[in-house]
Amino acid sequence: MEPVTHRIKGAHELELNLLEWSQEGVPLVLLHGLGNEAHLWDDFVPSVSAHYRVLALDQRGHGDSDWDPEMRYDAESMADDLEAVLDAVGIDRFVLVGFSMGGRVAMTFAGRHPERLAGLVIIDIGPEVDARGVMRISGEMSENRAPVFSSHQEYVAMLSLNYPAGQPDALKRMAEYGLKKRDDDLFELKMDPKLRGARPTDEATKAREEKFIQQQWDALAKLPCATLIVRGAASDILSPEIADKMVDDVLQNGTLAIVPQAAHSVMTDNPKGFEEAVCAFVLG
Predict the structure, then answer these.
(1) Mean pLDDT to the nearest integer, 157-176
(2) What are phi and psi of 253, to 5 degrees?
(3) What confidence tens digit (pLDDT) does each residue in 93-123 have?
(4) Are the C-beta atoms of 79 and 109 separated by less than 8 Å?
(5) Can you say whether the dihedral through the CA atoms of 237, 240, 243, 245 is positive or negative?
(6) Model pLDDT, residue 198
(7) Is the pLDDT assigned to residue 265 strictly greater than 80?
(8) Which phi and psi (to 5°) does residue 192 adopt?
(9) What are the residue boundaries of the structural domains of the chain, listed by start?
(10) Is 205's pLDDT higher than 90?
């Protein structure tokens, strides 16, 4: 199943890449995580494309979307992009699915427009994240800010270390769509290397993050639509305590699905388990 590609103007005049697999039904929009791109969802899309109008966005700085020269890679700016894309393709009310970074964007959008969501799926992320996972990801990226590879296979080998439970086909696809060939026949990431930079730790940054965390909790609390929280059973990003708090104490209509044999990247670690969990929610 091959998607149609659209080039759409996002916020700040950035050109964004949007994939559309089907054009009938309620729209279902997919937002990937940090370092991924829209083809992250290729295994999942066939299970829902007969029932939904399915679209996936390369978020700014990722895939075939523009890099932002001013480094506006915060969830608010990415939510601005989502608003622009939805306006461009004529989508008002829809189901939103966000993984990790994309989940933070999804919660930000939900806080602005709760009435526009027919359903929400948040995958392995919450308003507060487990420090273990933050340290792991920061360490992986700090080892090589702008890696260069002689082949796709070399990148797959690196991915297999960063995604130890990742299925081989998923990792190969990540390499296929996540690299671009240079004039010297070497390969580099399509992802803006600035996204792999060290996280600021100054007091002002910490204060902004604390404010953002509260905004995410507030967004979830006022959300009327049915919401699914998906957690990888071995996740080091979404703790059991935060997942339970989201569903039991904050969301008005929340459900938790725990996918076995999966860490943070649920859809690449256990594609079938992820499909079953999400389809039980979006297909009933």
Answers:
(1) 95
(2) -145, 65
(3) 999 999 999 999 999 999 999 999 999 999 9
(4) yes
(5) negative
(6) 67
(7) yes
(8) -60, 120
(9) 4-133+200-282
(10) no
